Amino acid sequence: MIDYGTFLQAALTPITLISGVGLLLVSMTNRYNHSTDRLRQLIRESDAIKPRKDDDLEHAKDLIFLRVRLLRQAILLVVISGMLSAILVLTGIIEIATNSDFVVIKSSLLWAAVSLVVVSTLIFAKEVSTSMKALGLSVHH
Question: Which candidate, 42, 36, 79, 33, places its Cα nearest to that of 61?
């Protein structure tokens, strides 16, 4: 029989990581949705003035498309991190249930999950920086 305290102790770190990943994912998804809506709006504006070309509008579209790509990458990494965290919980349960030792597997999963969050956060920071460039373009326009 699985001791509840042992199980809770083994699952606490990955479950906390999953919660943090979820909050990060909500934030990124909101920014992604806003960016795609803004990009669609700029495309409509660009189509409305054709065949004339507005360099500022094209630059704004390029910046927002870059933001969307960065956010898509960051979201993918966060989702994979959440999946690895869930596998980590499952591994902990199996380890306790079978009275086995999966320390190397669990350490590797945790290391990978946290690393993906770090890389995703760096990409997210790059997206925020790009957002500031796009905002600056709008202010100066």
Answer: 42
Question: Does residue 21 contact residue 85 with C-beta atoms inside 8 Å?
Answer: yes
Distance CA 118, CA 19 (A): 15
Q: Annotate 85-118 with DSSP letters as a single string.
A: HHHHHHHHHHHHHHT---HHHHHHHHHHHHHHHH
Place of tokens 């004339």: 52
**Virtual torsion, Cα 69, 73, 76, 81, nearest 10 deg:** -160
Is the separation of the CB atoms in 68 and 39 below 8 Å? Answer: yes
* pLDDT per position as a tens digit, 104-134: 999 999 999 999 999 999 999 999 999 888 7
60 exposed, middle or buried (CB, 10 Å; 0-12, 13-18, 19+)?
buried
**Count of beta carbons in the 10 Å neighbourhood of residue 85:** 26
CB 37 within 8 A of CB 83: no
Q: Taking a C-beta distance cutoff of 8 angstroms, is the pair 126, 70 a contact?
A: yes
Residue 96: per-residue pLDDT: 84
